[in-house]
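Run log, item B.
One chain of 569 residues. Sequence copied directly from the ordering sheet:
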Amino acid sequence: MAALQLTLAAMGTLLMPVFPGVTQWFFDDIIPNHRSDLIAKAALIMMGGFVGQELLYYFRTRVNSTFEQRMIFDLRGQLHRKISRMRMTWFDQQSTGDVLTRMADDVPATQRVILEGIEQGVTALLQMVMAAAVMFHTNVALTWIVLIPTPFLAAGGWIYARLVSPRATQARVASSAMNAMLFDTIAGIRQIKSYTFEDQQQEHFNGSSRRLQTVQKKLMAAAALYAPLMTLIGKVGLVLIMFVGAKWCVEGYSSGGVVMHLKQGELFAFVLLVGMLYEPIARLHGVNQTMVTGMASAKRVFAVMDESGEEDLESGHVLEQVRGEVLFDKVTFGYVPGRQVIHDISLRVKPQQTVAFVGATGSGKSTLFQLLTRFYDPESGSISFDGQPLANYSKASVRDAMAYVTQDAFMFASTVRENLLLGKPTATEPELWEALQLACADEFVRRMEKGLDSEVGERGTRLSGGERQRLSMARAFLKNAPVLLLDEATSAVDNKSEHLIQEALRKLRQNRTCLVIAHRLSTVVESDRIYVMRLGEIVANGTHGELLQSSPYYAELAALAFDTHRKAG
C-alpha cells in the first residue's frame, strides 16, 4: 500500500509542469503569434492536467486513509499485546496513566511520523525534484539563482530538529505525568471526596499541568520563530527571481558570449515553478515539526515494544491430569530487591486438601498465591507442583489449572455475561446461571434491568462490594479448575450469603485442591490444615483444634475473629 501511495504521488508530480508549461506557451507563442486556433487546445491540456492531479490526489488520500487506519490498528494491537504479556514486575514499576498515554496519544503521534514521512515528505521531495528539473531544462543560470536560499532552508530545518527534539521528549513525559495524575483522581475519587481533598488534589494537578504548560510554551516559541523565518528565507528566492529575471528581460544576459533576452512567458513560467519549488519546502517545514514531536512519542512506544521482559506463556511442559499437590521448599521473595516479603517458607498441600493461611495483614499470605500462579518467581528456594518444579510447566497451563478469586474482585467495564465468560469463554447460558446460583448471585442479577447483559460499570462501580465478590466467585465456579485459590473471597458478603457460599464451596472443594486466605473462621475451621503466618514467616501449622492448644498467636487471632463474628451475627 505504501508503494501504491508513492506511485500515485509520482504520477501527480509528473503532471505538475503542465500548468507552467502551457502558461509559457500562451505568453511566448500563442498570444504573440495570434494563434487563436491553439487557445482551446492549450486550455484543454491545462484543464486536463488539473483534473488529473486532483483525481490522483483523491485516490492518494483514500489509499493514505486506509493505510493510516490499518497502521494505527496494527501498532495499537502490537502494543496492547506486548503490554498484556509483560511480567508483573514491569507493571509494578509503571504508572497506569503513563501506559494509557502511550496507547492513546503516542501511537497516533508515531503513526503521523511514519505516514507524513512517506505521504508528505516523499511527495514534497518528488515535487521539488520535478520543479528543479523543469527549471534546469528551461534556464540553467536562472535556476542556480533560485536555489541560493535552499542551503539556508536545509540548515534551518536541521538546527530546529536538534534544538527542539529534547523539548519534545520533555513534553511527552510531562503529558504522561499529567494523565497519570488525572487517572489517580478518577480512580481515587471516593477517597478524595471522603477526605475533602479536592482542593489539594487540584493543586497537585495544577502543578503537573503547569510543568506541561512550561515545556509546551517553549515548543510553541520555537515553532513560532521557525515557520516565519523559513518562509521569509523562501521568499528571498521569489525576490531574486523577479529582480534578476526582470533585468534579464530588459537588459539581457550573456550566455556563451552571446547576449540573450529572457522572454516574459519564460519568466512567468519560472515564477510559477518557483512557487512549486518552495511550496513543498514549506510543507517539509511542517513535516519537520511533526517529525520532531512525533519522534518523541515513537521513542516511548518502541521503548515498550523493545522491552525484554515479555512473559513467555507457552514454554515448558503442559499440565495434564492435575492432582493438585503443592510444595514450597525454603522459598524467599520480595517485590523490591532487598525488601523480602516472605522468608524461608516451607509448606506442603496434599492433593484434594483444603489448606488455609491466616495472619495479620502484610504477613505475606497473598504473596504465596502470586508465586503459585507464577506472576512472580522466587528469589531463592523452589516451588513444586505435582512432584515437578513449577518452573518446568508453561505459565499458561499452570494458570489454566487454577481458579483464582482475588481479594479486590475486579470487574471489567462490560456486562455481567462478559465478566463471567472470563472463567469459561464457551459457557452456555444455563451454565452461567448455575454458576451464579452457586455463588448466591443469581437473585440480584435477575433483578438487574437486562439480567446477564446488564452493564456493571468501570471496575464494577454499579455493583456493591458483596455483589462484585459473588460475581468473582461465580467466575471461579464456572472455570471449574482442579486447584482453587480463594483470597478473602467472602470478606465483602453478609453472614447469610457467606453461609450459602460456604455450602457451595463445600461442593466445589470436592475432588480438588483448595488454598484459602481468610479472616473469617467459617472457612478456616473446616480446613484440613492451617498455616499461621507472621511477618513473612510460618510460625505454626496444624488443624484448628491443634493450633488453639499449641499456638498462642493463633489463639489470639481466633479469639478476635470469634468475637467479631459473634458481634456481626
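Observations after the first pass:
- The first helix runs from residue 2 to 14.
- Residues 5 and 60 are 6 Å apart (CA to CA).
Flagged for discussion on Thursday.
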